[in-house]
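hey can u check if this looks right to u? its 384 residues, i copy pasted from the old doc so theres a chance i mangled smth
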Amino acid sequence: MSCKTAWAEIDTGAIRHNVSMVKQKLKAGTRICAVLKGDAYGHGLAAMARFLGSEGLADMIAVGRPDELVRLAEAERAVACREGGKADQTPVLLIGAVEADEVEALLLSGQIDPGRVIFSVFSMRQYQELRRLAQRRGIRISLHVRVDEWDSGMGIGYDTFLRHEKMFFSSEYAEVCGLYAHLYSSYFHDFEKTKKDLEDFDAFVRQIAPQYRDRLTIHVMNSALLFDFPEYSYDMVRAGAAIYGLPCGDKGVLREAMRICARVFCVKDVSGSVPLSYHPGSVLPGTRRIARMMIGYGDCPLLLTQKDVSVEIRGKSFRLADDVCMDNLCVDVSGCDEITPGDIAVLLGKGNVTPEKIMKRNEMAYVHSDWLCMTTERLEKRFV
């Protein structure tokens, strides 16, 4: 029997299934960019990248911060050294903003493979600085330009991009090889607004000169758009929530990939006057039967701080006996004498603790479903 006290299981079969479901919605040849930012939505950055690469499930992966680039590269070098062979060469897109001095430091440190990494450009200033860096160092930097309908938005305005189109493709060092947008209206449940935003993006794309369009990988689709607007898949789609089986308008075709478990280590009848948390509530009459687990907000900070937390043990649902602690969870199992130390408690998975049911109980918007999977590094991830 395993001696682990708490862990997250990642169902590789569910991930394969989810990628297959995404591919079925898209036109043939559309590439998939697997979004692994935020430690792969809590599923484990390096392990998830290694699995996707070994299975050929992603044509590109995306991370959100420079430190994630470094962590990924270090982990892959360690695996290649330990197991022999070459490190994975799947292209990596940094979809977060990064300054030229950070890019220079990364490239000069040797921590990343410059031929594999693609940086995002969010402004004309940033583009010019990256272009000067590449020319000064005599190195080639690959870039994807983030665009927005307005110059005051997150990226470069559509009109601004078109006015400077020739300049973007004139450098032999700063190579613009991609262009993308992120439509926040996709989260608003306003079909007509989202449709209008997609039509505006499409009109913009059609104005790009053909000789430049042929050099670009264009992507606007995220998980929230995949199942309603597959006709706008262009060259590539960015799939995050969909790969992990989180609610994203998929109409039930996806499978949850993560199950969070903890082992019951103690079951006791406890007086209602005994504190179970840092902030004990009112003194309760009588006694309660309390099952304890060594897991807390230090492992699942957002899942275990919702107002309505349930735990499944032996197929039955139980509520917390008090507020969660950093390392300790107390569950009220009164009236259920069959629960004993060694039983497995499920905090996220099937039954009453699916992401959808947790979100509904806590009145969460589905766009925040990834909160439930945000686990800290100390919580072991098992790929099963």
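Residues 66-83 form the longest helix (18 residues).
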